[in-house]
Description:
By secondary structure, the chain is of the alpha/beta class. The protein has helices at residues 18-26, 47-50, 55-68, 83-92, 120-133, 158-167, 174-177, 200-208, 233-236, 238-248, and strands at residues 3-7, 30-33, 74-79, 97-103, 138-139, 171-172, 191-195, 222-226.
Amino acid sequence: MATYVLVPGYWLGAWAWDEVAGRLRAAGHRVHAVTLPGLAERAAQDIRAAAEVDLDAHIDDLVSLIEGEDLRDVVLVAHSGAAMPVTGAADRIPERLARVVYVDTAPLPSGMAQQDFLDPEERAETERRVAEEGGGVMMPPPPFDPAADPAGLAGLSPERLAELRGRATPQPYRTATQPLPRPDRLPDTPKTMIATSIPLPLVKELAAGGNPVFAAMTGPEWSHLELPTGHWPMLSRPADLAGLLADLA
C-alpha cells in the first residue's frame, strides 16, 4: 500500500481532500491531507502574522511533515497553486518520494512566481483585490461564479459550489509572489500530470510548441493522465480522482 500526502491549492484546507482521502484509506493506503500555514484551520488571527507566511514557510511545512513522520516512498500530490510548495519540497527531499503528481497544474520554471504565470490583466486585478480587500497581504478567494468561469467550475454541484464558497479562506499573498529558484540538476523522481480543466491534447500541443511551463513536462520521468471536469476534481469527481491516484501507487 502507498503513502500519500495530498496538498490542496489556493484558498483551501485539508477538508477539500476528505472524500478522496477517505476512499484511499478504505483501500488500505496511508494518507496525510495537508492544510498549509495561514489557511483554513491554520489561518493566522493577526494580519501581521499572515504577512510572514511565504512560499518558504509552505515548503518548510511539507518537508517537516514528511521528515517528522519519517514518511518514505511518498506519492506527493499537488493541486493547482500547491504546485509551488510541492515542487520546492520535492527538490529538497527526493529520496523520500516515489512520485510527484500535479493535478491540473505543473511546476513553473526556475525563478518564476505563481503570479508571473497570470496575464497582465489578471495580475492587476489580483493586486487590486489584495490591496483593497486583503490588507495588502492576503489574496481573497474568487467569487467562484460559474458564469464567469464555466470551465474551471465545471462538474460542481450546487452543494459543492456552496461548500467551496463557504470554506475558502484568503491566501497569504507572499506565497504567490515569491519566486522558486530550482537546482540546476533536478531530481528524476517520477512525475504525473492529471489534466482536468485543460484538455490533455492541448497540454501536449503547448509542450511541443515550446511553452516554458508545459515543455518541462516532456522528460522520460513524466506521464500524463486526463480526468475531464473542472479545476476542482477533488470536489467534482472525487471517486474518479481517488481511483487514478490509487492506480499510480
